[in-house]
């Protein structure tokens, strides 16, 4: 009997969480995908620091399982400049297709933020070589809505693994 009650409870919880996740066609989902694209395709892959300045909160907190903690927009941008954009090869981030989950955060029924969870791959592009996979990692981003734009406020980057693991 206890097992049946536990199974029913887990079913209710899982069905509620499925309803809370945004669908790819929803407006907020599309907005977060666009913000993610700006962050990684422009900021990370193309070292566009002006874009990074526009989409990150002043009090950004970035928690990385290998690189430690970075506090603040300026420290984050400087870290990106030093650790991503000034190395001997070109790092490229790709979102793993089908891994993205986005959950709205509401206050009195109004969306003020979104939680983005996913899996991404990192590649190295060296001169005259094909890009090759260097690592895979999980991420969780907290985006806060300010007027008509989204700001990256908190980042968890974890479970980095080499492709051989």
Uncertain regions spanning at least 5 consecutive residues: 2-18
How far the N terminus sits from the C terminus, by CA atoms, comes to: 41 Å
Mean pLDDT: 90
Q: Tell me the number of helical segments per DSSP (H or I, 4 or more residues long).
A: 4
Give the SSE order as H and E letters: HHHEEHEEEEE
The CATH topology is Nuclear Transport Factor 2, Chain: A
| Class from helix and strand fractions | alpha+beta
Proportion of residues in extended strands: 35-45%
| Named CATH architecture | Roll
Give the oligomeric state of the chains in this entry, treating copies of one chain as homo and distinct chains as hetero.
single chain
Task: Using brief descriptors, characterize the structure shown.
Nuclear Transport Factor 2, Chain: A, 165 residues, seven-stranded mixed beta sheet, disordered N terminus
């Amino acid at each position: 009997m206890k097992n049946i009650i536990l199974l029913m409870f887990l079913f209710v919880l899982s069905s509620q969480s499925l309803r809370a996740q945004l669908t790819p066609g929803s407006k907020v989902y599309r907005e977060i995908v666009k913000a993610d694209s700006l962050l990684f395709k422009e900021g990370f892959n193309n070292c566009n620091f002006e874009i990074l300045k526009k989409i990150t909160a002043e009090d950004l907190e970035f928690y990385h399982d290998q690189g430690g903690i970075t506090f603040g927009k300026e420290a984050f941008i400087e870290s990106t400049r030093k650790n991503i954009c000034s190395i001997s090869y070109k790092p490229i981030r790709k979102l793993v297709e089908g891994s993205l989950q986005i959950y709205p955060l509401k206050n009195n029924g109004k969306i003020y933020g979104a939680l983005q969870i996913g899996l991404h791959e990192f590649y190295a592009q060296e001169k005259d070589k094909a890009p090759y996979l260097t690592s895979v990692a999980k991420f969780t981003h907290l985006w806060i809505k300010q007027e008509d734009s989204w700001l990256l406020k908190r980042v968890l980057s974890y479970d980095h693994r080499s492709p051989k693991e």
